[in-house]
Amino acid sequence: MFHIVDQSAFIDYICCLNSFFGTLSPRVLAQQDKLGLRNKLMVQLIKILQTKPFGTPAIVRIVNTTSELWKGIVGQRDPWSLNVMREMSVFCGGFPREAGWLEVMVSATTLIGFEQDVEVLEHLRRQGSNEAGGESQNVEWTYLALERTQQSWGDPDKWDADAMAACNGLVQALLYSGRLAEAPPLQSLRVILQLLSAPESGTWLQNPHLQPIMHEYSVWPRLGHIALTYQDQLGRRYMALGANISTIAAWRPVVYQDLPTWIDVFSGQEGAKLDTNPRGEFCKVVRNIWAPEVDPHAHDKYDYANETERSWALALMVLCNVWAEFAFNGPPSDQLFRAG
């Protein structure tokens, strides 16, 4: 990886690319501090890559080198403007699907990705709401790149930091693409759930500024609905994600409200092989969320036929406890869990 002292040196590099492949005014070239022009210079460079008759190998090299330089900056990296993100999305959507294509997509989205910048997320959220009736962008390239990334790195459970960073950038690309015309393909949903359920992604779920946004959009209940719809393909990932967030204080009340879905998804996994059945995740979440006072070894005195029977005994105990506390005559806000 390359290492640059600060953002100023990186912007000088972008300025040089613009000057070499395009045109820049003498005033811009003479300006000593170009940080204030960073977004305009990046948009111009992206437009050059789309309009100049470069060969694919040249574009691959430019984008990859620029991405590596960006990642090598020492110190804070300010997020790009929404215009930069949108222009890069247009570039990716129109890039030919030939040798080097996936590498360019990963480098491009890594370059313009933001590192949990709350102001950017809030702006994107408002932008998405304002564009509810607007034209949806082409995001087919994002889904295809997600699926190709999974194929390139193999078993998702063994992804390294580079694979996680690649998928992070691609998922973020969906955020600044405005309203999606339709639901993502099933294979892409599997990759997204894998990304969220991995320990390396815990910082997204633990970020106190991002949590209210995810709660506002009912992320957990929506994921539960998807997992119920596609039990065979997504149920296992949903269980792993639940185990990941059940220890995070801000997520516990949200998960607590959706006990029926948690049990329904688990029941759909009972036909899986023993080595893939999520009994461990199921029991862990039940104890963390709905039965924190229960001794993990309290059921050891019973002679269960197998681990499945033990898991269902714990589920029945929790259901009985919740049923006993359910406020039948109270307002909806007092209910302890959602209707099934």
Can you walk through the features of this model?
The protein has 340 residues and is an all-alpha fold. It has a domain at 194-340. It contains 18 helices and no strands. It has helices at residues 7-21, 26-30, 38-51, 56-71, 82-94, 101-112, 118-130, 140-153, 161-175, 186-197, 202-206, 211-216, 219-229, 231-245, 252-256, 259-268, 279-290, 307-325. Helix 8 packs across helix 10. It is elongated.
Q: What structural category arises from helix and sheet content?
A: mainly alpha
Order of helices and strands: HHHHHHHHHHHHHHHHHH
End-to-end Cα distance, whole Å, is 51 Å
- Please tally the β strands and state the result: 0
Report the major sheet.
none
How does the overall form come out from the CA principal axes?
elongated
- The proportion of residues in beta strands is under 5%
- Give the overall average pLDDT: 76
How many helices does DSSP assign?
18
Radius of gyration: 24 Å
Query: Stretches where pLDDT falls below 50 for ≥5 residues?
Result: 332-340
- State the helical fraction: 55-70%
Task: Describe the structure in brief.
The protein is mainly alpha-helical.
Helices and strands in order:
Elements: H1 7-21, H2 26-30, H3 38-51, H4 56-71, H5 82-94, H6 101-112, H7 118-130, H8 140-153, H9 161-175, H10 186-197, H11 202-206, H12 211-216, H13 219-229, H14 231-245, H15 252-256, H16 259-268, H17 279-290, H18 307-325
